[in-house]
UniProtKB/TrEMBL annotation:
Keywords of this entry: Signal
InterPro entries, per the entry: Ice-binding_C (IPR013424), Xrt_dep_XDP1 (IPR049672)
A Pfam family this chain is assigned to: PEP-CTERM
Name recorded for this polypeptide: PEP-CTERM sorting domain-containing protein
All copies of domain Ice-binding protein C-terminal, residue ranges: 258-281
Entry annotated with the keyword Signal: yes
Region forming the signal peptide: 1-26
Length: 284
């Protein structure tokens, strides 16, 4: 008489634990509404929370020495972020606003001047750092989409930090940033309108830098527009760039190294215990 093979309870238990671990290592996604910060809606740093995840946004601009117009020689300093009611997206007001010498004369239009409360490259080069280190530590996240509002010209660039440790931008120059990888230059994707931009990247990073215009390693911020010969066009009124960010979506990939959730382990343990009890009853 043939006998059906008896399952190995050790193998079944191992399979259960493997399935739990695989589930714990699955990708997770978050969508952050940048118009709804936690706490203050202005300052050099804003905090956002979504589903237990935290994003910190910081503003920067090239307002440091020698503080010349449209110059990558300028040092980077912190800048003020603007969000909350009345703002269609997060923008930046830099330290040279309001006519202070030498002044960014186009940075003091107030909330009604929608362009100059944007992230722009008119005279000074603005950028916003998205810090996801509190969400997934050094493993980072993949920046999937940006909801961008553009005004006049609306080129922008995205950099991902792939160096070691925590990046420092203050007192640096855009043209000599170390440890940053250019994800892409995005041209006029939201000109005088809004658009959801898919970045199409496979990079995972805890730190992402978004700025107005184009970017080239060794050069820094550009106008974002090129001549027929491939060189960057000079900065002028017709090709200054103005963008605001309304929303970002990110994906966290644990890579299977995460500790399984207690509830999942408990369910696996109960299932395995049930199988052992069934085996004992049959043997009795």
């Amino acid at each position: 008489m043939s006998m059906s093979p008896r399952p190995s309870f050790a193998l079944i238990g191992a399979a259960l634990l493997m399935s739990v671990s695989a589930g714990a290592g699955a990708s997770q996604s978050w969508s952050f509404d940048l118009l709804d910060p936690t706490g203050s809606s202005s300052g050099t740093q804003l905090t956002y929370t979504q589903g237990g995840a935290t994003l910190t946004a910081r503003g920067y601009s090239s307002t440091g020495y020698p503080d010349n117009d449209n110059s990558n020689a300028n040092r980077i300093e912190t800048a003020y972020l603007n969000a909350g009611p009345g703002y269609p997206g997060v923008g930046i007001t830099n330290n040279d606003a309001y006519g202070t010498w030498p002044g960014d004369t186009n940075e003091n239009g107030g909330i009604w001047d929608i362009r100059e409360l944007a992230i722009d490259n008119n005279e000074r080069f603005d950028s916003i750092l998205l810090d996801f280190s509190a969400l997934n530590g050094s493993q980072g996240v993949k920046l999937d989409t940006l909801n961008v509002l553009g005004y006049t010209d609306s080129d922008f660039f995205v950099l991902a930090y792939t160096g070691g440790g925590t990046p420092s931008l203050v007192d640096q120059q855009y043209g000599s940033l170390a440890g940053w990888t250019l994800v892409g230059n995005y041209s006029n994707l939201a000109n005088n309108s809004s658009a959801s931009v898919d970045l199409n990247t496979s990079i995972y990073s805890s730190f992402w830098l978004i700025g107005a215009g184009g970017f080239e390693a060794g050069t820094g911020v550009t106008s974002g527009d090129k001549n027929g010969n491939g060189s960057w066009k000079a900065f002028k009124d017709s090709n200054y760039d103005y963008i605001k960010l309304a929303n970002v979506t990110v994906t966290k990939k644990d890579g299977g190294n995460s500790v399984p959730e207690p509830g999942s382990l408990a369910l696996a343990g109960l299932a395995f215990a049930g199988m052992l009890g069934l085996r004992r009853r049959k043997e009795a």
